[in-house]
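Researcher: I'm preparing a figure for a lab meeting and need a structural model of a single chain. I don't have an experimental structure, so a prediction will have to do for now. The sequence is pasted below. Please return the structure as tokens so I can convert it later.
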Amino acid sequence: MFFLAYNILSILLLVPVFLFNIYRAIRLCWPLAVAERFGHVPRKLLSTIAGRSVIWLHAVSVGEVIAARPLLKSLRSRYPGHALVVTCTTETGKSTAAGFSEVDLCLYFPFDFLPSVRTLLAAVRPRIIIIMETEIWPNFCREAARMSIPLVLANGRISDRSFPRSLKFAWFFRPALRCFSSICMQSETGRERIAAIGADPGIIQVSGNLKNDIPARQVSEEERKQLRSRYGIPAEACVLTAGSTRDGEEPFVMSAYRELSAEIGDLFLVLVPRHPVRAGEISALLDGVGLHYQRRTAHRDGQLQQSGDVLLVDTVGEMMNLYALSDLAYVGGSLVPFGGHNLLEPASVGVPSIFGPHMENFREIEALILQYGAGIQIHNPAELAATWRTLITSAELRRILGQNGLKVLRDNGGATERHMAVISGYL
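Model: Understood. Here is the structure written out token by token.
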């Protein structure tokens, strides 16, 4: 009865969803990809996976794609003859996944209309489907189960903010959750929450957070110099990278940077908005406060910039290089209520991070960073400049926090192998 009602509603929503997709694509400068979102993939693309067993991994956007990288590497290593297909909902996620050497084919995830789902499943014919975190679509899950395709939820999590809402709509999630073969949650809290929403407790296990399996490495001075030379950043500057900033955060970052630049020489800011399409808006803000900047897309590799300048990154896929060349990081989405971003990215290259109070989507990682002393949490925008100042003026404190960040990664890995133990059972 649920699926009948859901599909009747899907038909009624077909036109609004289609129009919204067009609006979003135009606003964000994404390709329309109408045929692909309705499940139709050109034969030329499908030829890249022809004749091989397919492992299909779905990751909504950039964060999930990056979190899936250790798993993709392990799948490629263990199953070299299989084709790895990654689907994403966003263009930025798809672009990021397309840059991974492990991936054979990147596609847009289809709308959850029954014909779209059936068409794409029939075209790809996966041996197994792995869904990152909690991207649960009823028709997709049901059709996979109907076709006897094992469905594995990987790196599952339910945030503090979303749990009450998910519990209220348990009637919606329960039928889809019952289609899964295995569910791997990040934590015991996640296991309890997804069971409360309606998953079969017998198929749930705690497998840890794949984001903890980002490779940790100490960046050498030579590599840091080479990266700075490539991006035209002064070799001796103290580089502050504000990564994955969200709407409303950039003015705080700019204000703190202007204050510090006026009293401390040799500073350089790298500003990386979560969504590059906002670069025009951020350019206007930089103009308004009188900060000299250059967009990454207009910058030639090796073109030297000056201390006190700003590099505005309007590309995707460069975040880890930018953290690696930095002295300090501010991790965005945390001074405004967006739930934060992954603190382990700067930690994995020995760079200390500053972050705000809004870390609802990364509570376990937040706790680890604070427990190990690998970063500093601030409570309001006014504290950003003062905290940056403390770290800028103490190379020893930066070194200690950076080493603690590397230790977080060394001590808390292993999620990939625990996930692989589950996935291998179906391959």
